[in-house]
Write a structure and sequence with these properties.
Elements: E1 4-11, H1 17-30, E2 36-43, E3 48-51, E4 57-61, E5 66-68, E6 74-75, E7 79-82, H2 93-101, H3 110-116, H4 119-127, E8 136-140, H5 147-154, E9 158-162, E10 172-174, H6 180-188, E11 193-198, E12 203-212, E13 215-226, H7 233-237, E14 241-244, H8 251-267, E15 274-281, E16 284-291, H9 301-309, H10 313-326
Parallel strand pairs: 1-2, 1-7
Antiparallel strand pairs: 2-3, 3-4, 4-5, 5-6, 8-11, 9-10, 9-11, 12-13, 12-15, 13-14, 15-16
Helix pairs in contact: 2-3
């Protein structure tokens, strides 16, 4: 049997590239070498390159995403395992390019990536499927804002967040009207569009959903207990939160969360890894966002959920490659 060539594609154009390199390393280490030749490809703003275990680099040919190794050997990849967090691998740009050149890849397609990278549009589409979310006001950079009207509509405290940014960067919890302008500036530094959301006072959970061996499964529900006011970048990546898997919820609520998370996944026509964030308030799960390329470093939520579910990382990653090969 011929081994398939798999490129684990990591990096990205945002600050999240550091996390992506760790996620990529775990997948690179976990893929079955009896079935695949595994290569590492790093995509950064200024260069796209292949790198071997000794640190030797070779550029990626963007015409067909092949790599010419030093030995004069040209490698084409049967599958690209996409584990880029943020742009361009989580917002649809890379998927559209791969579609155009006929390159197979893991995870969802370009439309789902672009849609889910836009919080406002995701929640708008999902509301049609009866999936609740916080009350929100959407703002473009430069648009006038009536602060009193915002506070009257949403109440205090409220959240200000960039519409398109991964990793919880640029988010502020606003408790006083006077804090609003600074919070908006902070969010607009990350994106030209901002969401102002009502505060949902409840338990935050992170739900891993994927299609595994032909069915949509919920890998796990993880309760997020931030040591700070909310689950921000620091809490996510610098350990300032406690993550409890499985979440401390009763069976009825668990079933509600599982059903809604699966419904969101299937309604959007998703495939591959996903992690959705919800706040459970008075027994109802309200959706915050969906990540289509969630963190996959050993400390990340998804690998922890898989361990709890009883699926090995090797099987989890192999399943993604096999699905992509069948596309």
């Amino acid at each position: 049997m011929d081994k398939k060539n798999v490129a684990v594609v990591m990096g990205g154009y945002s600050d999240e590239y550091k996390v992506s390199l760790k996620s990529g390393q775990l997948i690179y280490d976990s893929l079955d070498r009896d079935l695949y030749n595994v290569y590492k490809v790093v995509i950064l703003k200024d260069e796209w390159y292949f790198i071997d275990d000794r640190g030797n680099k070779a550029p990626v040919n963007k015409a067909d995403f092949s790599v010419n190794l030093n030995s004069g050997f040209n490698v084409q990849f049967d599958v690209c395992f996409n584990i880029i967090h943020g742009k361009p691998g989580e917002n649809g740009e890379l998927q559209a390019y791969w579609d155009t050149i006929g390159q197979k890849y893991t995870g969802c397609g370009f439309y789902q990536s672009a849609l889910t990278f836009n919080k406002k549009d995701t929640l708008a589409v999902l509301s049609k499927y009866g999936i609740p979310s916080a009350k929100s006001i959407y703002l473009r950079n430069g648009e006038a804002i009536d602060e009193d009207k915002v506070i009257e509509e949403l109440g205090l405290p409220l959240f200000v967040k960039p519409n398109q940014s991964g990793s919880s960067l640029g988010i502020t919890k606003v408790k006083e009207k006077t804090e609003l302008p600074k919070a908006l500036d902070f969010a607009f530094a990350e994106d030209d569009e901002v969401l102002i959301e009502s505060f949902l006072n409840g338990m935050e959970v992170s739900v891993g959903v994927l299609d595994y061996q032909g069915e949509t499964i919920v890998l796990g529900i993880t309760e997020i207990v931030p040591h700070k006011e909310f689950f921000d970048y620091e809490a996510k990546y610098e350990g300032a939160s406690e993550e409890i898997t499985p979440a401390r919820i009763d069976d009825e609520t668990r079933k509600k969360v599982e059903d809604i998370a699966k419904r969101a996944y299937d309604s959007l026509g998703m495939s591959g890894f996903s992690r959705s964030e919800f706040i459970i308030m008075n027994g109802t799960p309200y959706m915050l966002e969906m990540n289509t390329n969630p963190g996959f470093s050993p400390a990340s939520i998804l690998p922890q959920q898989a361990k709890h579910y009883g699926i090995s990382i090797k099987d989890l990653c192999g399943n993604e490659v096999e699905k992509a090969l069948k596309k």
